[in-house]
User: What shape does this take?
Amino acid sequence: MMRIDVISAVPDILVSPLNESIIKRAQNKKLVDIVIHDLKDYATGKYKQIDDKPYGGGAGMVLMPEPLFKCIEKLLSERKYDNIIFLTPQGKRFNQKKANALSLNDNIIMICGHYKGVDQRVVDTFATMEISIGDYVLSGGELASLVLIDSIVRLIPGVLGDSEAALTDSFQVSSGFDAPQYTRPADFKGMKVPDILVSGDHKKIFDWREDEGKKKYRKVKRKNI
Ligand code: ADE
Assistant: This one.
């Protein structure tokens, strides 16, 4: 079973999204074990401090190295990890290809930075990759780690049923995007479902979906440049 350990200073952010829908089902089916670690549990000293002011001055607080070292070293003493991922806007951009590769891992640690980041010595010592989910700054790595987890877990064999098969997802098909989808009713307020989809001709439907996916892909890509 794949295991994902997420280390966070604000673990409550992670709880609900990991306990719904497909990710919840994957855990119940014992296809993935997702373990959240509250950094405060690894804090030492009277005040259980986990962050401090940056050396050299500047705004914001930096996560201290000791609690993170303690947590990561404990995990590393228990099992081998394929990847230790630090979520940061300065990392390599996440995409479907990276999700596919990570879905083949057995054990992954995700480190969520918070405030102004984490002490660089943690990253230098442990991180096997630094990943960003896009060119914008989040308040912490938690939402980014959830994005990674969601996209990885749905690729684990057995997580999706046949009807949801990940192979037909956008980005997994050659066109780049899914075709538009419709469900009943066939006529909603005068807006009709494309005839081809109710034709029953599977070859034509397949080709139409490929074409529409490609069209949508080109349109969106143009808009994003
Ligand atoms: N932490 C803060 N912003 C982030 C981003 N865009 N991607 C990954 N981790 C982050």
Notes: The longest strand covers residues 83-93.
